[in-house]
C-alpha cells in the first residue's frame, strides 16, 4: 500500500478542538489552496459501540463531542442503535447525532425487528453516514453475513453496507461504510471483501472509468491480513500512524479510511484519542480529483 504523508500522529479530542480553535492544526483543519483540478474533503470513520464508552456508560453527549471535534465533512459510523433497546435508552442515535451536528444522515440497518409494542418504532441496528453535503442518492447493499441474532447462523446475504453519493464542489463522490465480521475465522471476511469489490465496481463504466470512491469502516482485521489484500488492488488505506483498538492502550489497527487509487489522494490522517467508545476514530484529509 502507498504510504501517505502524515503530519499528525495521534490527537486527543480536547487537544484537537483546542488546536483547531487556535488555527494551529494546519494539516487537519486548514488545507492550503487546492489546485484547480482537485477539491478537499475531510472524512472520518468511527465505531460508536452503541454509544457506550470504555466505562460501559451510554452517553450521547460524549459521542457528540467526539464527532464535533473531528470537524469532518463526511463521517462513517458503525454499531449504531436506532430505537434498539435499553442499552442506548431506545433512542435514535443516527438521527439525534445528525440533528445536533447539523448534518444530513443516511442510516442502513443490518437488523430491523418489530417494535416491542404496536405503534412504536422498529428496533434497528446498523451503520450510518453523516454528511455536511446533500446526499444525492443512497443505497443499503447486502453483504455476506453471519448473524449475531440467530443462535445457529449460516453465511447469507444481509443488509448493512450503505453507499451514498455526495457532490463536493460539483465532483460526485461515492462513500461506503462497512463493518466486517469480527470472528477469528476469516472466511466470512473473505466473502465480504469479495462482495465489497463487486459492489464498488458497479459504479464504474464499461471502459473501467470509476468515480471517486471512499470506503470507511471497522474491518476487524489489520492492514496486512491476507483477507484484506484484494481490497488494496483498487484502494489505498490512509495510514493514521497508530492503532485504533481497543480505545484504552490500543494495539490493533482495524478502523480505516480507504480511497480509490486513481481519483483520491490522502493528504494527512490521524487517530483521535478518546474513551467515548471502545474504538478510536480515524480522520483523514483528502483531495478529490476533478474530471474523472
- At the fourth level of CATH, the homologous superfamily is Endonuclease/exonuclease/phosphatase
The string of secondary-structure elements, in order, is EHHEHEHEEEEEHEEEEE
* Mean pLDDT value: 91
Strand order of the largest sheet: 1-12-13-2-3-5-4
Q: Largest sheet, described in full?
A: 7 strands, mixed
> Count of helices?
5
The percentage of residues in β strands lies in 35-45%
CATH class label: Alpha Beta
What are the main properties of this structure?
292 residues, alpha+beta, 6-stranded mixed beta sheet, globular
Description:
With 292 residues, this protein is of the alpha+beta class. The chain has a single domain (10-20, 38-289), classed as Deoxyribonuclease I, Chain A. The chain contains five helices and 13 strands. The chain has helices at 13-22, 26-29, 60-70, 93-101, 187-201, and strands at residues 10-12, 38-47, 74-82, 104-113, 123-131, 135-145, 156-168, 171-179, 212-218, 235-237, 255-260, 264-273, 282-289. The strands form two sheets. It has a seven-stranded mixed β-sheet. α3 (60-70) packs across α4. The longest helix has 15 residues, at 187-201. The protein is globular and about 55 Å long. Mean pLDDT is 91; it is low at 1-8 and 19-34.
In short:
The chain contains 5 helices and 13 strands.
Amino acid at each position: 500500500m502507498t504510504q501517505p504523508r502524515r503530519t499528525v500522529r495521534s490527537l486527543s479530542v480536547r487537544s484537537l478542538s483546542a488546536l483547531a480553535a487556535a488555527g494551529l492544526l494546519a494539516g487537519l483543519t486548514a488545507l492550503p489552496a487546492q489546485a484547480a483540478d482537485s477539491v478537499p474533503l475531510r472524512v472520518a470513520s468511527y465505531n460508536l459501540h452503541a454509544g457506550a464508552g470504555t466505562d460501559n456508560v451510554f452517553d450521547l453527549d460524549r459521542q457528540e463531542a467526539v464527532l464535533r471535534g473531528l470537524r469532518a465533512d463526511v463521517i462513517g459510523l458503525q454499531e449504531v442503535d436506532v430505537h434498539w433497546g435499553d442499552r442506548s435508552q431506545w433512542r435514535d442515535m443516527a438521527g439525534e447525532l445528525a440533528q445536533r451536528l447539523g448534518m444530513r444522515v443516511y442510516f442502513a440497518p443490518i437488523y430491523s425487528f418489530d417494535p416491542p409494542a404496536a405503534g412504536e418504532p422498529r428496533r434497528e441496528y446498523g451503520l450510518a453516514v453523516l454528511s455536511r453535503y446533500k446526499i444525492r442518492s443512497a443505497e443499503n447493499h447486502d453483504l455476506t453475513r453471519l448473524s449475531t441474532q440467530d443462535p445457529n447462523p449460516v453465511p447469507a446475504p444481509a443488509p448493512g453496507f450503505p453507499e451514498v453519493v455526495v457532490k463536493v464542489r460539483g465532483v460526485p463522490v461515492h462513500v461506503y461504510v462497512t463493518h466486517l465480521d469480527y470472528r477469528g475465522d476469516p472466511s466470512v471476511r473473505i466473502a465480504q471483501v469479495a462482495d465489497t469489490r463487486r459492489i464498488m465496481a458497479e459504479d464504474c463504466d464499461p471502459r473501467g472509468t470509476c468515480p471517486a470512491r471512499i470506503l470507511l469502516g471497522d474491518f476487524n482485521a489489520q492492514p496486512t491480513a491476507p483477507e484484506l489484500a484484494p481490497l488494496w488492488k483498487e484502494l489505498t488505506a490512509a495510514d493514521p500512524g497508530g492503532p485504533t483498538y481497543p480505545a484504552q492502550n490500543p494495539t490493533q489497527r482495524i478502523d480505516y479510511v480507504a480511497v480509490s487509487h486513481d481519483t483520491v489522494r490522502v493528504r494527512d490522517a490521524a487517530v483521535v484519542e478518546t474513551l467515548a467508545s471502545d474504538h478510536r476514530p480515524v480522520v483523514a484529509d483528502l483531495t478529490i480529483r476533478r474530471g474523472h
